[in-house]
Amino acid sequence: MSPPSPHVLILGGTTEARRLAADLVSRPGVRVTTSLAGRVRRPGPLAGDVRTGGFGGAEGLAAWLRERRVDALVDATHPFAARITANAAHAAAATGTPVVLLRRPGWRAGPGDDWHPVDSLPEAAALLPGLGDRVFLTTGRLGLAAFAHLSGLHFLVRSVEPPDPPLPPDTRLLRDRGPFTVADETALLREHRVDVLVTKDSGGAATAAKLTAARDLGLPVVVVRRPPLPDGVPVVPDVPTALERLARLDGLDGLDGLGPRPR
User: Fold this and answer.
1) What residues form DSSP beta bridges with 60?
2) For residue 263, what pLDDT band results from cuts at 50, 70 and 90?
3) Helix 209-216 to helix 182-191 angle, to the nearest 10 degrees?
4) What is the 3-state secondary structure (H, E, C) of 190-256?
5) What is the C-alpha to C-alpha distance for residues 79 and 236, in angstroms, rounded to an integer?
6) Is the Cα torsion angle 206, 210, 211, 215 positive or negative in sign?
7) The predicted structure's pLDDT at residue 253
8) In this predicted structure, what is the pLDDT of residue 141?
9) Is 178 helix (H, G, I), strand (E, B) or coil?
10) Which of 49, 143, 159, 185 could form a disulfide with 210 if both were Cys (CB 3.0 to 4.6 A apart)?
11) Rounded distance, CA 134 to CA 129, Å?
12) 260, exposed or middle or buried, with CB in 10 Å at 0-12, 13-18, 19+?
C-alpha cells in the first residue's frame, strides 16, 4: 500500500503563494491547500484546494493541521500580516509541523532617496505635517484611521479594495492594482501634485516603481518598517528557495523530489 500523498498548507494572499501553489500542484503526488483570509473579494485563480477565512487563532490552526494531516506549512502571507505569522509559528510548534516562512526581500534606500523610516502608521502620520501638504498614501485599505485626524492635508489613497473608515476628511480614493510602471507613477505624482509619499515596506517589483518616481522627482518617502518575525522559524526569500527548503524538511519523505525544476 502506497503512503498517503504529502499535504502542504500555504497561508496565501501573495504572488509568491500563488506561484508556489502552482509549482507544487504540478508535481505528482503532492496535495496543496491554500488558505486565504478573505479580505480580497475577487482573488485570482489558484492551483490546488482553496479555503477562505480565519482558523480561529493559533489553536484553531493547530487543530486544522492535525485534522487535515498537514505535513508542511508555508507562511506566504503579506509581510505585514504579523498576527497570522505569529499564529502560524505557534501552531506549527504545538503540532510539530515543519514550517517555512516565505518573505520577499524588503526595499532598500539607494543614492538620491529621501526616506524617513518609521515603525508604525501612527508614527508615519506624525511626520507628515513637516514633510508636505499633499500625500500619496499607499499603505493599503486597512489602518487609515491613523491618518483620520490630519485635517490640514490632502490625501490621495490608493488601494485594491475600498478602504475601511474612518478616513482623513480631505481624501481622494484611487482603486487600482499593480504592477505599475515608473512612467505611470511619475505621471500620477505630477498630476496630483503630490509632495510626500507614504508606503509600507512590502517589497517586490509590482509596486516599487513609485519609489523610483519619488526619487526622480525629489519627493520624501515615509516608509513603515516590517514587523519583527517569530524566532526559530526558517525564512526564505523566494519560491525556488522555499521548494529547496521543503525538500530538506525532516519526516517528509514524500517531498524529497521537490526543489527547483531544472532549467
Assistant:
1) none
2) very low
3) 60
4) HHCCCCEEEEECCCCCCCCHHHHHHHHCCCEEEEECCCCCCCCCCEECCHHHHHHHHHHCCCCHHHC
5) 12
6) positive
7) 52
8) 86
9) coil
10) 185
11) 10
12) middle
What is the rounded distance in angstroms from the CA atom of residue 129 to the CA atom of residue 68? 51
One-letter amino acid identity for 115?
A: W
Phi, psi of 193 (to 5 degrees): 55, 45
Q: How far does CA 100 lie from the centroid of its chain? A: 15
Give SS3 for 47. coil
Which of the 8 DSSP states describes residue 160?
S
C-beta of residue 2 within 8 angstroms of C-beta of residue 65: no
Omega within 30 of 0 (cis) for the link into 166: yes
Q: Whose CA is closest to 155, among 116, 198, 114, 213?
A: 198
Binning the chain into helix, strand and coil, the percentages to the nearest 5 are 30, 20, 50
User: In percent, how much of the chain has pLDDT > 90?
Assistant: 79
Look at residue 115 and give its three-state secondary structure: strand
The H or E element spanning position 174 is: strand 171-175
pTM of the predicted structure, to 2 decimals:
0.89
Checking if the pLDDT of 97 tops 60, the result is yes
pLDDT band with cut points at 50, 70 and 90 for residue 256 = low
178-196 pLDDT, tens digit per residue, is 889 999 999 999 999 999 9
